[in-house]
Amino acid sequence: MSKSKHKDKSILAPASVRFLYDYLNNASPTGFESSGQKIWLNYIKPYIDEYFVDNYGTAVGIINPKAAYKVVIEAHADEISWFVHYITKDGFVYLRRNGGSDHQIAPSKRVNIHTEKGIVPAVFGWPAIHVREPGKEETPTLKNIFLDLGCKSDKEVEELGVHVGCVVTYPDELMELNSRYYVGRALDNRMGGFMIAEVARLLKERRIRLPFGLYIVNSVQEEVGLNGATMIARRIKPHVAIVTDVCHDTQSPMMNKITSGDIACGRGPVLAYGPAVQNNLLKLIIETAKKEKIPFQREAVSRVTGTDTDAFAFANDGTPSALISLPLRYMHTTVESVNKQDVEEVIKLIAASLKSIKANQDFRYLK
Question: Does 223 score more than 70 pLDDT?
Fold first, then answer.
């Protein structure tokens, strides 16, 4: 694997970093992504020709909208969260998952409950260590984790505007570790939304004209079944789709390389192999990475990728699709971590791959 041509020179403008913090620090829970989508669209509008938002909130920026040949670059906009599920008579709140929220990290966490009246703060309660019996301690489950709003009754809870169905998010904000990592909640995969927005910026600022229509897609509801991508793939009917999401870094303690592969933050984008990945498109991306001296890693994903790649690949008559992943530590926690250089390498690889696609390029196996 070759080193990047521009290892020490960041491609991110100061405005890009401000957008990153604004976008990542804003809550965008599955099914309630609208505020995040507004931030994202406002940022990319100077770099696109048109945009639209579908009925469920997937946002799409378009460059060269009149072109017949359509290429998609895509990420998903939603973050995992919780729903208020049951309010007890004495004012405690039990939850239901909205996406793959991790019950084991919940105890002692602070949360925001989103209501029509505004944000209501709460905490996940948990018995103190002093009162837990050694050897017989309960582990956190959906049956025993609960929220404490400081209320004495269900009536007080309701007076705050909290009701069954209110969405609950963690307030943890983006930070940096050792000037090397971005750390926070919802980097899966709102960092992807940032990266495809940066691709749009680079194309505009470098005056790169593509011989096709480019659809920059920030899909909703990936965390509950690839729903947004499934809907938008049918609407756009693209000829090619390049999807970006995250994958597991396996270098930290308790990770198993035998089951999860040998993937490392700091070694560049990860290219997936699997039935949903179209081999000729993957070959183009690999050749582009080698030509541009962009480091990359490889991952086998077997039956499905588990990302929006699957939704695009198997939509319509089959869309040649590929997955470029960003290595990430501690997925679905409040301290998800990605290497800053990897973020830039993914942006460069997507942009360079777009430049490598010819007008009306046919990716079929047999011609």
Answer: yes
